[in-house]
Amino acid sequence: MRIHSKIDFHRFVGISFLLLSFNITLFGNIPAPLPEYSGMESYSEYKGTVVDKKTGTPLAFANISVVGTNISTVSNTEGEFSLKISRESTDTKVLVSFIGYKSKQLTLMELSNENLKIPLELTSVELPEINVISKDAEALMRAVLDKKEQNYFNNPLLMTAFYRETIKKNRNYVSLSEAVVEINKQPVNSYRSDIVKLYKARKNADYSKLDTITFKLQGGPFNSLYLDIMKNPEMIFTEDMFKNYEFSFDRSTHMDNRLIFIIDFKQHSEIKEPLYHGKLYIDAQSLALKSAIFNMNISNKEEAARMFIVKKPFNARAYPFETNYRIDYLEKDGKWYYGYSRIEFGLKINWKKKLFNTNYYSTIEMAVTDWEKLTDNQIERKERLHPNVIISDEASGFSEPSFWGEYNVIEPEKSIESAIKKIQKQLEKEQELKK
Predict the structure, then answer these.
(1) What pLDDT sits at residue 221?
(2) Which of 63-77, 78-92, 122-136, 389-403 has the lowest mean pLDDT?
(3) What does the pLDDT read at residue 310?
(4) CA-to-CA distance for 172 and 178, rounded, in angstroms?
(5) How far is CA 12 from the centre of its chain?
(6) pLDDT tens readout for residues 415-424
(7) Which of 135, 142, 166, 175 is the most buried (most CB within 10 A)?
(8) CA torsion through residues 291, 188, 273, 363, sign
(9) Angstrom distance (rounded) from CA 30 to CA 47
(10) pLDDT tens readout for residues 32-63
């Protein structure tokens, strides 16, 4: 039977990121809010929506980057983005790119248009002849891992990133946390773990809607970093774990005039453990992994539940009904680095002697918005977040829309934006009552 060792399985379940507890108060003291950024006039903010030129369909997770810099962001699930650029940058150009589409450069004047829509056109480039290694999908993926030290940055990077996590109970948001973090990103060939410092954060949690349950996400930004499968191949692909999967070629596509191979992978049918299935996007020229979009096989509900749930009440059954993952890498001067990751997780709770079930749905995402090579600017030990951090306990509460100042963030979807507005209205009412 094709299964991995107990050691590998222990690492595999390390991605378990949920803390589910019941009838327990785990709320720590909320620290005082950090001072607001005062340099509001030092940057200009540009907003727009990335769409398919032919259909007008929004393109989610498109990359928007400032040419000649390491500044970037991604579009949200509705194709919308926000990008903040220093007012001193007058001749700057912005590159918008998406897998399978022709990239487009825009001037700041073009970005200044209100209700801006940026249409991208599907590529229609003839595919070059495929070499020998690319005819074997598994061999191609092995080559990706063999060349990772050559393709990815082999020195530490100092990254600034925006992190967001949400929890919904059925259709209602019950928790929303956002943060700007600093990351000491370790090289792919290093056994050292990434180090994270919380710079600025805000949160709102309506625990009254959680009934008798305290539902929190454990791990915060580390969950996003664990998805860096070039740094952490044990999450899916180690030498022992390759035999668990079937690999096959899907169609090929292009991005930035470069050929991208798409590989499908899935676990062998006789394996009953919850493993993964999805697509791998590989740059044909460098054999670097560009993106990975995959899901966990959760057909074995009991086993999947054991992987994610820390505690379970005696009068309920809890199990995941959806697990989606995404990791994107960006390229600079021939080297690739972690750029964006997203986790979507659904949990169903069946209560004994109750007619209706409860569904919880959580989304975790993080985007690197700027970076530089790390020299001696290590995060001090006392400032480091613990890998088991509950970010909603570390955040300092919501504030006005200008809370983030010059920092680039992921533009919130309309549903999140609506939730934020409700929070702010509630805060305004509370302030009025105090007067």
Answers:
(1) 92
(2) 122-136
(3) 67
(4) 18
(5) 18
(6) 888 888 777 7
(7) 175
(8) negative
(9) 33
(10) 333 444 444 688 999 999 999 999 999 999 99
Per-residue pLDDT reduced to its tens digit, 369-406 = 999 998 876 888 899 998 888 887 777 677 666 788 89
What is the Cα 119 distance to its own chain's centre? 24
Non-local CB neighbours of 424 within 8 Å, separated by 6+ positions: 398, 400, 401
Determine phi and psi for 143, rounding to 5 degrees. -65, -35
| Total length of the chain | 435
3-state per-residue secondary structure call for the chain: CCCCCHHHHHHHHHHCCEEEEECCCCCCCCCCCCCCCCCHHHEEEEEEEEEECCCCCECCCCEEEECCCCCEEECCCCCEEEEEEECCCCCCEEEEECCCECCEEEEHHHHCCCCCEEEECECCCCCCCCCCHHHCHHHHHHHHHHCHHHHECCCCEEEEEEEEEEEEECCEEEEEEEEEEEEEECCCCCCCCCEEEEEEEEEEECHHHHCCEEEEECCCHHHHHHCCCCCCHHHCCCCCCHHHEEEEEEEEEEECCEEEEEEEEEECCCCCCCCEEEEEEEECCCCEEEEEEEEECCCCHHHHHHHHCCCCCCCEEEEEEEEEEEEEEEEECCEEEEEEEEEEEEEEEEECCCCCCEEEEEEEEEEEEEEEECCCCCCCHHHECCCCCCHHHHCCCCCCHHHHCCCCCCCCCHHHHHHHHHHHHHHHHHHHHHC
pTM confidence score: 0.87
Signed CA dihedral, 118, 119, 122, 128: sign only: negative
Higher pLDDT, 209 or 233: 233
Which amino acid is present at 272?
A: K
What residue ranges define each of the domains in the chain, with the CATH number in brackets?
A: 6-23+131-434 (no CATH), 42-120 (2.60.40.1120)
Q: Whose structure tokens read 């180090």? A: 195
